[in-house]
Specification:
The protein is mainly alpha-helical. The protein is built from ten helices and two strands; from the N terminus they run H-H-H-H-H-E-E-H-H-H-H-H. 62% of the residues lie in helices and 3% in strands. It has a two-stranded antiparallel sheet with strand order 1-2.
Length: 208
């Protein structure tokens, strides 16, 4: 299991938030890196035999990136609280996207189980979603920027992998194993490319 750096102390977090607010992009990177443990913690509740943990963390990290990019420290809320909602929201969007491709969907269909072995149903997740999930996590502007970079900042193989991996342009999200078989490359190579592209996305948003 991948290990992550320890979370920032409240004092350190405030320091880096202020630095980032003043334009220090390195501070933003630090806020992301030191909150990856939170991504893993949230991703675990969605992990099943069918769901790869690395895949869930990759998707959750996108939510974390959005959270750090849009967090407003002047509102008095904690970054971890805000980020947790964005991470959860990103993972839920993945599951909902999959369900849209099923002709008949029951809210009582199990989509996995929690760490105690209890079944998680779609209805459970929909009801547990906080009504004030930050709208900023789904801003159309961020989506448009992401798609622009997808078309203009990536090589053809990178773009293909990301489209298949995250179900972009209306496609169904695909696992790394399926992508590897389809493209005739190893799963580890697909994973490396995905992580590299996520880094490029991070730098693209950081440079904005």
């Amino acid at each position: 299991m991948q290990t992550f750096q320890k979370p920032l102390t409240p004092e350190e977090e405030q320091l880096y938030l202020k630095r980032y607010r003043d334009g220090d992009l390195a501070a933003r990177n630090m806020l992301v890196e030191r909150n990856l443990r939170l991504v893993a913690h949230i991703a675990r509740k969605y992990q099943t035999a069918e769901e790869d943990m690395e895949d869930l963390i990759s998707i959750g990290t996108i939510g974390l990136l959005k959270a750090v990019s849009t967090f407003d420290m002047t509102k008095g809320s904690k970054l971890a609280t805000y980020a947790a909602r964005c991470i959860d929201n990103e993972l839920l969007m993945m599951f909902r996207s999959r369900r849209k491709n099923v002709r008949e969907v029951s809210l009582y269909d199990p989509i996995g189980s929690d760490r105690e072995g209890n079944e998680i149903h779609l209805l459970d997740i929909l009801e547990s979603t906080a009504p004030d999930v930050p709208v900023s996590c789904e801003k159309k502007e961020d989506t448009l920027r992401l798609y622009w970079f997808l078309e203009n900042g990536l090589a053809e193989q990178e773009r293909t992998i990301m489209i298949l991996r995250y179900g972009l342009y209306g496609q169904k999200p695909t696992t790394q194993r399926v992508i590897a078989k389809r493209l005739g490359i190893s799963r580890s190579y697909v994973s490396r490319i995905e992580k590299n592209v996520l880094g490029k996305f991070r730098q693209f948003f950081l440079s904005a």
